[in-house]
Design goal:
Length: 626
């Protein structure tokens, strides 16, 4: 039987055949830590006494806060710079742009190669037929030190886009159409190969747009077979010929999903959920306060050119803010050389340094309470890009809306911009920081837990840790709880795990008081796709800090699952959130069998720990020595 793209790439880098479900040790061609997470990677390496496997393939990228405008970010960046000088590691500093784009544009990664980063959108590399994966700081520290990581080979689905979209539709509209069909977890645990007439003609920028939002569909990665244009681009960037990678004609797919895009019109995602997608026409006329064009999803030159063509000779609506951030400095300079920056400035836009912008809460792009924003970003979870409402759309819709003062397409802009009403205001609010709580375990010590019976393990396996856990439950019967709800991005610069617990669920509506009420040994029970979104390790470590014994979910986001396993923090897959459990009930969970004893006297079945999960758990974490 033939092989899919992911099976070929992972197999080539594992030195063995790679079939779905196999756990393989994968050689990583390029490994990157960003300015958030980078300092934690450094700390992990120093604390564990590790070296660097290959400095020439190891990099830091400072794309979250290119200005270093926050003291904690500035400190973390400086920690990384010092470490880089000590170990001979390359640094793409605050003037360079988004690390995943640099990996492509600088020829660091070419089709068929592997890349990991502390960026949940590292799967952008799928746009060129390479394997990219966002991982937490423990994984990245391991990759820095050993040049390899363990990985479970995912099954592949083929997504076929049928039909010809409207000329008014862009790559972002195709992406949003896929998100509407597949939902927030429609690709959960899968690699996806995107094909079809609408895909074949996409340029590199369009492929990057689509690949970047596989994360929002729960996917491991979205892969595109490189066309001639992509191969030529990558060969030029790398300074050497590169070969294409494609699935075999008889490759096995878990499923084939057809999505009809015939006549597709501009689409938009309504605030709060990226998958809540409707035609722009359904929300046209909604008054906006700001527009943002940029991010790893739509910050390429081609995206900005679309916006410039709409803005040229016009001025944005009074009272509306237009913020534009190119993905890389090379793109920024091209915009300067070819007159796009003049168009943006003449229209009244603010143009920022290349970087991630509002997604990381570290640069321009955030909005205020009550503010309505249209954005070309990839996420609009509550609080992700500020405290207002965020609609996700294409650069064309974002530019047209900035001119119109309301949500609009270029074809539907009113003759005159819509103004704010005199005397009108926005919602105001405050979200004061809670006082710091008591300390917790240090990184690598694992969570506190109430042992129940045989602890398992052996002296050779390191510290004895219980394999049966008993505790009171917190039941949160919600699906798609993302990492910003678990641990908000405004706390990303925190590096001391003892400080993280106070922020757990601080951005989850109705559960803001969780951290103040939680006790060591508690068990959290949630729904599907828990921990979707960002790659941040803090979304695991905040529970370690609190001494939480276990998280039980119907399913987990792929990166979150890896981060928890590598931290040695117990997680189990089981459908308990809607089983009748109530806050305060006690359950007992056997990690080795998956058996869950319920307060009713009955039992439920969860997924037992896999061998690799149990081995890392017993060691107390991936970087802990046996």
């Amino acid at each position: 039987m033939g092989r899919t793209m992911i099976e070929k790439v992972l197999g080539a880098h594992a030195g063995r055949a790679a079939s779905p479900g196999d756990i393989v040790d994968v050689r990583i061609d390029v490994r990157v830590a960003r300015d958030f997470g980078g300092a934690n990677v450094v700390q992990n390496i120093r604390d564990s006494g590790l070296g660097i496997d290959d400095p020439a393939r190891t990099f830091f990228t400072f794309d979250c806060n290119p200005g270093g405008s926050d003291q904690k970010y500035a400190t973390n960046q400086q920690i990384c710079r010092i470490f880089a000088r000590e170990r001979g590691i390359g640094v793409f500093d605050i003037d360079r742009g988004i690390g995943t784009h640099l990996a492509i544009d600088e020829g660091l990664v070419v089709p068929g190669e592997t890349f990991v980063s502390t960026d949940s959108h590292a799967n952008i590399l799928g746009a060129i037929g390479a394997f990219g994966q966002g991982m937490g700081d423990l994984d990245i520290a391991h990759a820095f030190a050993h040049g390899r990581v363990w990985f479970k080979v995912p099954p592949t689905v083929k997504v076929i886009l049928r039909g010809e979209p409207s000329p008014r539709a862009h790559a972002k509209d195709l992406t949003l159409a896929c998100l509407r069909r597949l939902g927030a977890n429609g690709l959960l645990g899968f690699a996806a190969e995107f094909t079809g007439e609408a895909v074949a003609g996409l340029d590199l920028a369009g492929r990057i747009t689509m690949a970047s939002m596989a994360t929002e569909m729960g996917g491991i990665i979205a892969l595109f077979t490189p066309n001639e244009e992509v191969l030529e681009y990558c060969s030029s960037a790398a300074g050497r010929p590169v070969a294409p990678v494609a699935a075999d004609s008889d490759a096995h797919y878990e499923a084939e999903i057809e999505i009809d895009v015939e006549g597709l019109e501009p689409m938009i995602s309504r605030p709060g959920k990226p998958e809540d997608v409707v035609p722009v026409a359904e929300v046209a006329g909604r008054k906006i306060g700001s527009s943002f064009i940029g991010s790893c999803t739509d910050g390429r030159y081609e995206d900005l050119q679309v916006a410039a063509d709409i803005l040229r000779g016009r001025t944005i609506a009074p009272g509306v803010l237009l913020k534009i951030v190119p993905a890389t400095d090379r793109i920024w300079r091209r915009c300067l050389d070819e007159g796009l920056l003049a168009v943006f400035k003449d229209a009244g836009a603010l143009v920022g340094n290349a970087g991630c912008a509002g997604c990381a809460a570290g640069q321009i792009g955030q909005n205020g309470p009550g503010e309505v924003t249209v954005s070309t970003g990839n996420r609009n979870y509550p609080g992700k890009q500020g405290r207002g409402e965020v609609y996700l759309c294409s650069p064309a819709v974002a530019a047209a809306s900035a001119l119109a003062g309301v949500i609009a397409t270029p074809e539907s802009m009113p003759a005159r911009p819509v103004l704010f009403e005199i005397g009108g205001g926005g919602a105001a609010g405050a979200d004061p920081e809670r006082a710091a709580g008591e300390g917790g375990p240090k990184r690598g010590q694992g969570a506190g837990a109430a042992p129940a019976g045989d602890a398992g393990g052996s002296p050779e396996a390191g510290p004895v840790r219980p394999t049966r856990l008993r505790g009171r439950v917190w039941v949160i019967p919600e699906d798609n709880i993302d990492t910003d709800m678990i641990y908000h991005n405004r706390h990303l610069a925190v590096t001391d795990i003892r400080e993280m617990g106070q922020y757990a669920f601080g951005n989850l509506k109705g559960r803001e008081g969780f951290a103040a009420q939680a006790k060591a040994g508690d068990i959290v029970v949630v729904g599907k796709n828990f921990g979707c979104g960002s790659s941040r390790q803090q979304a695991v470590d905040c529970f370690v800090s609190l001494g939480t014994a276990l998280v039980v979910a119907e399913s987990f986001g792929a990166i979150y699952e890896r981060n928890a396993i590598n931290q040695g923090f117990p997680i189990m897959t089981a459908d308990l959130a809607r089983s009748g459990l109530a806050d305060g009930d006690e359950i007992e969970v056997d990690l080795t069998t998956g058996r869950i004893a319920l307060p009713s006297g009955g039992t439920a079945e969860g997924r037992p720990f896999a061998d690799v999960q149990l081995e890392i758990y017993r060691r107390g974490g991936l970087l802990q020595k046996v």
